[in-house]
C-alpha cells in the first residue's frame, strides 16, 4: 500500500454560459488533466450546467492565508475615497 | 498556543457561526468541529456510494426503457453526490484513501436503510419515494450549514434529489393503479420500507447524542423527532392519494396537534442494523470492497499511463 500512487486532486471551474466567467464548482481525483476534464463533465455538468470547463491540479493553486486577512484586506476598509459616494456634489449636477 | 488563546479562538469561532458567517477550509476551527464534520460528511458520502447498490440491482431489469434511463440517471447522481461530499470532506485534511479505508474496514457508518434488500421492482418506487423523501427532509436544512464546502455540496445535492423522489412516486403510482397483482407489489414494498424510512431520520431526541452540539454548528436545524413528524405528515396524504395503506395501525390524525400520531418504532431493529446485523450489511460491504479491489489495476494503469505521457511530453520539450 505504501508505494501506491493515488490519483491527484483537481479543482474544477465551469463557465455556465458564454458571457459569464468560469466559477469554482468543486474538485475531483483523476490520473491526468484529460481524465479530470472527462470526470468533471460527468460529475459537474450532468444537467447542462456548463459550456466550458477548466481543470487545475490543486497543488498548483496558491491561496492566501486567512490568518493574514487583517493585513491583506483591512487596509481597503478605510479608503472610502475610492467610492463615488465620498464626494459631495450638489443635487443640481446631473449625469454624474 | 496556550489554553487561554485556544479558548479565545473558540469563543470567536462560535460567535462567527452564531452570526451566520460561513467557515471555510483554511479558517481556524476547533478540533472537535473538524472531527465532527469529517464524521458526518463522510458518513453522508458513504451513504450515497453504498446507496447505489440496492438500486443498481434493478437497472438491467427495469420494466421499460423510460424506467431504465431514469434509474440509471438516479444512480449516476448518487455517485456524483458521493463525489461532491468526499471532496468537500477532503478540504478538512483527510485523504480520499483514508475515507475509503474507514468505510471498507467498517469503522465509518453509512445510512442503515441501505442494509435492506430490494426484492421487487416496486422497491425502486418505494426507495425513491420514501428513502429519498426522508433524505430530502434531512438534507434541505444542511444547505445552510456553517461549513462552506458542505453547504455548497448540499445545494447541488438537493437540487438533484427532487427528481429522485418524483420518479419513485411515479413508479408507485403506476403500480398502485395497475392490476391487483401490481397494486399488491406496491403495498408490499410500502410495508417493508415504511418503518426503516422512519428510522432513517435517526434515533429519538432522547437517544441522540450529537444533537445539541450539531444544532449549535448548524449541522442540524431540527431534531430527529421533528424531522420524522414532518416526514410522516407529508407522506401519509401521498399514500392516500394513490390508494396505499401505511402499515401502522396506530396512525391517526390528531386534530389538536394538526399532525399524525403514530405507532412505536422498533428501535431494537434499528440498532441491530446499525451494528451490522441487518439483512444486507455483509452483502453491501462485500460488493463495495469487491468493486474497489477489482478496480485497483485500472486505477494503477491510468496512473502509469498518465506518468508515461507526462515523461514523453517532457522529453520532447528538451
Describe the protein.
The complex is a heterodimer of chains A (96) and B (318). Chain A has a domain of 60 residues: Phenylacetic acid degradation B (Ubiquitin-like (UB roll)), CATH 3.10.20. Chain A is built from two helices and three strands. With 96 residues, chain A is an alpha+beta fold. The longest helix of chain A is centred in the middle third of the chain and has 12 residues. The N and C termini of chain A lie far apart (67 Å). In chain A, β1 and β2 form a beta hairpin. The model of chain A has no long low-confidence stretch (mean pLDDT 93). With 318 residues, chain B is mainly α. Chain B is 69% helix and 2% strand. Chain B has twelve helices and two strands. In chain B, α3 runs antiparallel to α6 and α5 runs parallel beside α7. The longest helix of chain B has 29 residues. The radius of gyration of chain B is 22 Å and the shape is globular. The relative contact order of chain B is 0.10. The model of chain B has no long low-confidence stretch (mean pLDDT 95). Classes of the chains: A alpha+beta (96), B mainly alpha (318). At the A-B interface, β2 and α1 of A face α3, α6 and α12 of B.
The CATH topology label of the domain at 2-61 in chain A is: Ubiquitin-like (UB roll)
CATH superfamily of the domain at 2-61 in chain A: Phenylacetic acid degradation B
| Total number of helices of chain B | 12
Derived from helix and strand composition plus strand pairing, the structural class of chain B reads: mainly alpha
Query: Rg of chain B from C-alpha positions?
Result: 22 Å
Shape of chain B: globular
Topology pattern of chain B, helix = H, strand = E = HHHHHHHHHEEHHH
Query: How many alpha or pi helices of chain A?
Result: 2
Amino acid at each position: 500500500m505504501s508505494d501506491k500512487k493515488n490519483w491527484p486532486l483537481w479543482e474544477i471551474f465551469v463557465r455556465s454560459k458564454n458571457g459569464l466567467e468560469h466559477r469554482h464548482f468543486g474538485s475531483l481525483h483523476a490520473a491526468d488533466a484529460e481524465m479530470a476534464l472527462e470526470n468533471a463533465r460527468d460529475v459537474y455538468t450532468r444537467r447542462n450546467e456548463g459550456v466550458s470547463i477548466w481543470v487545475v491540479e490543486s497543488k498548483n493553486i496558491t491561496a492566501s492565508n486567512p490568518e493574514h486577512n487583517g493585513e491583506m484586506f483591512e487596509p481597503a476598509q478605510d479608503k472610502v475615497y475610492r467610492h463615488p459616494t465620498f464626494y459631495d456634489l450638489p443635487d443640481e449636477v446631473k449625469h454624474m | 498556543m496556550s489554553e487561554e488563546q485556544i479558548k479565545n479562538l473558540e469563543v470567536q469561532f462560535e460567535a462567527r457561526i452564531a452570526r451566520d458567517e460561513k467557515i471555510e477550509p483554511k479558517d481556524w476551527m476547533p478540533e472537535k468541529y473538524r472531527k465532527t464534520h469529517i464524521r458526518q460528511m463522510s458518513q453522508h458520502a458513504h451513504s450515497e456510494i453504498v446507496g447505489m447498490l440496492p438500486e443498481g440491482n434493478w437497472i438491467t431489469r427495469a420494466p421499460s426503457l423510460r424506467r431504465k434511463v431514469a434509474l440509471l440517471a438516479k444512480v449516476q447522481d448518487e455517485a456524483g453526490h458521493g463525489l461532491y461530499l468526499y471532496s468537500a470532506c477532503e478540504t478538512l485534511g483527510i485523504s480520499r484513501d483514508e475515507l475509503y479505508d474507514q468505510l471498507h474496514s467498517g469503522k465509518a457508518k453509512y445510512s442503515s436503510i441501505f442494509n435492506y434488500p430490494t426484492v421487487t421492482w416496486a422497491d425502486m418506487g418505494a426507495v425513491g419515494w420514501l428513502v429519498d423523501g426522508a433524505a430530502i427532509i434531512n438534507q434541505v436544512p444542511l444547505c445552510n450549514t456553517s461549513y462552506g464546502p458542505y453547504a455548497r455540496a448540499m445545494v447541488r445535492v438537493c437540487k438533484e434529489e427532487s427528481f429522485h423522489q418524483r420518479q419513485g412516486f411515479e413508479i408507485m403510482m403506476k403500480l398502485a393503479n395497475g392490476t391487483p397483482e401490481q397494486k399488491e407489489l406496491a403495498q408490499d414494498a410500502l410495508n417493508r420500507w415504511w418503518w426503516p424510512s422512519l428510522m432513517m431520520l435517526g434515533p429519538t431526541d432522547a437517544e441522540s447524542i450529537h444533537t445539541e452540539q450539531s444544532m449549535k454548528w448548524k449541522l442540524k436545524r431540527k431534531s430527529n423527532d421533528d424531522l420524522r413528524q414532518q416526514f410522516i405528515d407529508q407522506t401519509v396524504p401521498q399514500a392516500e392519494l394513490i390508494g396505499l395503506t401505511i402499515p401502522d395501525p396506530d396512525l391517526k390524525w390528531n386534530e389538536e396537534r394538526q399532525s399524525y400520531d403514530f405507532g412505536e418504532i422498533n428501535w431494537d431493529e434499528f440498532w441491530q442494523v446499525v451494528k451490522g446485523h441487518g439483512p444486507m450489511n455483509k452483502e453491501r460491504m462485500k460488493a463495495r470492497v469487491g468493486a474497489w479491489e477489482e478496480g485497483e489495476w485500472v486505477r494503477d494503469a491510468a496512473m502509469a499511463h498518465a506518468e508515461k505521457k507526462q515523461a514523453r511530453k517532457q522529453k520532447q520539450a528538451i
